[in-house]
Amino acid sequence: MDILLIEDDLELGQSLVDGFRRNGYRVAHVDNGHAGLASALEKDHRAIIVDRMLPGLDGLELVRALRRAKNTPVIFLTTLCGIDDRVQGLDAGADDYLVKPFAFAELLARVRALTRRVDALSAMTVGSIELDLVKRTVTRAGIVVELLPQEFRLLEFLAQNVNRPVTRKMLLERVWNIHFDPHTNVVESQVSRLRSRLNSGFAINAIETVRGVGYKLIAPN
Amino acid sequence: MASAVLFVVATAVLIASVLWIVSSTQWAGIARANDDDIGTVLSGYRQEGIEEAKEVLRQRIGNLAGEMPSTGQTYMRIQGPDAQHSLGNLPAVPEVIGTFDMSWFPRTRELRRGHAVGSSDGIAITGRGIKLDDSYYLFVGRDTATLEMTRARILKASLWIMLGSIAAASIGGVLLATRLIRRVDDITLTCEGIIAGRFEERINTVGMGSEWARLAGAINGMLNRISSLLESLQQVSNDIAHDLRSPLTRLRQRLEIARTSHATRTDHRAVLDHAIEDTDQILALFGALLRIAQIEAGTRTASFEPVDLAELLREVHLLYQPLTEDSGRSIECETASKIFVMGDRELLFQMSSNLVENAIRHTPEGSQIKLRLRRVAGRARIEVTDNGPGIPDAELRHVTRRFYRLERSRSTPGHGLGLALVDAVARLHGSRLVLTNANPGLVACVEFDMGGTA
Asked: What residues pair up with B104 in beta bridges, in sequence order?
């Protein structure tokens, strides 16, 4: 899969390129906004990673200009962590917003989540797990699993990213709309609850912990 | 300056109006008097003919005969086909029908139509003429000298009035300006003092009128705000300098030991893991500090919206329930319904979340934590209570300070910013964090004015 990275910090840029290549992605790296926008408009990249502060064309302007023509998924990388900066970035048309410094695993997980196909579904099937997105109910191998609403939301997000690890930060943001970092293991406890309910009576653990990254839902048979 | 000009113009308009009114009244008076006399002669003529008319005239003029031509004097003449049949106190007059003016020069016995301008020995007469019949013409007129005199008097008076009012306006203007300048100077001096670094100076509002007091009050308020922002900035800088050195020093020491020791690759791996942890911790600390500073700068209030506090607290409760129970404690939630406040949902969530985390962190296993939302005296009150050890009374005042760690917690993980952030969010919303010991346990309480939809 082909990613465009627009980042003027050459050291960071190189390390990101290496990281993505090691994970099987093709990456094109440019270091200024104009070249970046040109490439973004000409080619069909699967995802674009943009630094918000760029020489020449500013990151926000770049994304606005891109959005007039294309829907390519975009993640902002930035040192600006102000509460309004994120909103501004998303309003400009970006799909995600990551504050530096970040763990590469975090960026990787988010790129993976961005590049999945997003369909408007009424139901999802993950192996023997079936989710009714309208009624908000779950069955595993035909047996109903009782979940609290937030546990269902958690499972839904994991299912949307089946077989891909999602980070704790992503879960906090997507499931609970929390953009600060609680210093406790809230997410671990929540996942642990979901896991125990989902696995109750079954041999296979449907939610795996991926060390150093987060959690992923697998498709149990 | 402008007001002085305005004043003068207004006075001029007033004088012109007075002049006009007086003038037209007098003209009307003369016309009426002339008409009355004509009427009397005419009625005499109608009753008993021309001789009666002449008799009436003789009597009328006779009353005045022998007197010097005086101001306002009446001039009448009945003019027949020749001098024999004419009489009056004027020589032959032009037989003009209707109202007209003429000038009579007694010395040269000259009579001219119109008012001779600026002639001192001429008498200006305004009168009316009618034909009594085919042969006889009647003229009655009056001297308009009074009119001219009145007008001259009014003009002279008004000149003095104008001069007087210009003088008054100028003096008034100067006095006002001086007062204004003095007030402005006062304020400018105070502001300059503050610019020069004397941050405690404020404008003295003693003896000020209400508008000035309001302006000064607003400026003083602004200065108070700047003062507190500066204090906050100062405190943050101090705190950063003091309390960030520890984790950074620790990090450096670890890395240095690793560099100089003959450790294995695995050991290096462990050191690097620790180093990353330490760095993450420091970054989290910076992030929290930055967040607190942003909140204290108060730029978020513009985007306040109605927040459903009951719904928010229930979400906080649900979020933390698994963690609380996993750590051997319990958490309950009790919310009154339909409680809305104007605020920032994200910040209020973080505030509540911090309070819960604080309760979890500072209580022993088995403790009970309670989240409560209720109406108290028309305000919305959020309470997070626990039945743990509470906070020693001596330390209660200090715990909202940045980096403050309780004596007994010094060695436990945490950076001491949690309650500082809670307080910052509370203050942004016009409230503050109030901590009290319930013996047992702690009560953390924040109250808000209700707002938005209710």
From this structure: B111, B123
Check if the beta carbon of residue B384 is closer than 8 Å to that of residue B371.
Answer: yes
The reply to whether residue B357 touches residue A183, judged by beta carbons under 8 angstroms, is yes
Give the strand pairing for A74-78 and A47-51. Answer: parallel
Angstrom CA distances, B302 to A155, A205, B306, B422, stand at 36, 48, 12, 20
Q: What is the pLDDT of residue B454?
A: 47
Would you state the structure tokens that stand for residue A161, as one six-digit string?
A: 């990213």
Which of A58, A150, A214 is closest to B319 using CA atoms? A150
Residues 6+ apart with CB under 8 A from A18: none
Which pLDDT score is estimated for A187?
A: 94
Respond yes or no on whether the N-terminal peptide bond of residue B440 is cis (omega within 30° of 0).
yes
Q: For the CA atoms of B65, B68, B71, B75, what is the dihedral angle to 10 degrees?
A: 40
Chain centroid to Cα B421, Å, comes to: 37
Instruction: Tell me the nearest-neighbour CA distance from A122 into chain B, angstroms.
Output: 25
Burial code (b: 16+ CB inside 10 Å, e: under 16) for A34-47 equals eebbeebeeeebeb
Rounded to a whole number, what is the distance in Å from the CA of B323 to chain A's nearest CA? Answer: 5
Q: How many CA atoms lie within 13 A of B68 on its CB side?
A: 2
Among the partner-chain residues A101, A176, A180, the one whose CB lies closest to the CB of B319 is A176
User: Across residues B25-30, what is the average pLDDT?
Assistant: 87
pTM: 0.65
Chain A to chain B, count of Cβ pairs less than 8 Å apart? 55
Q: What beta strand segments (E) does A44-197 contain?
A: 47-51, 74-78, 96-99, 123-126, 129-132, 137-140, 143-145, 166-167
**Whose CA is closest to B355, among A82, A83, A184?**
A184
d(CA B393, CA B395): 5
Establish whether the linkage from the previous residue to A55 is cis, with ω within 30° of 0: no
- Tell me the CA distances in angstroms from B218 to B183, B192, B363, one per residue in order: 15, 17, 46
The H-assigned helical ranges of B141-260 are 145-195, 210-243, 245-260
Q: At a CB cut-off of 8 Å and minimum separation 6, what does B285 contact? A: B244, B247, B415, B417
Tally of CB atoms within 10 A around B192? 11
Chain A, nearest residue to B353 by Cα: A182
User: Is a pLDDT exceeding 90 seen at residue B366?
Assistant: yes
User: Contact, A26 vs A1, CB < 8 A?
Assistant: yes
Q: Does B290 touch chain A (CB under 8 A)?
A: yes
* pLDDT per position as a tens digit, A21-30: 999 999 999 9
What is the C-alpha separation between A163 and A215, in angstroms, rounded? 9
* d(C-alpha B216, C-alpha B221), whole Å: 8
Query: How much of chain A is helix, strand and coil, in % rounded to 5?
Result: 40, 20, 40
Quick: pLDDT tens for B237-282.
777 777 778 778 888 888 888 777 766 777 788 888 888 888 888 8
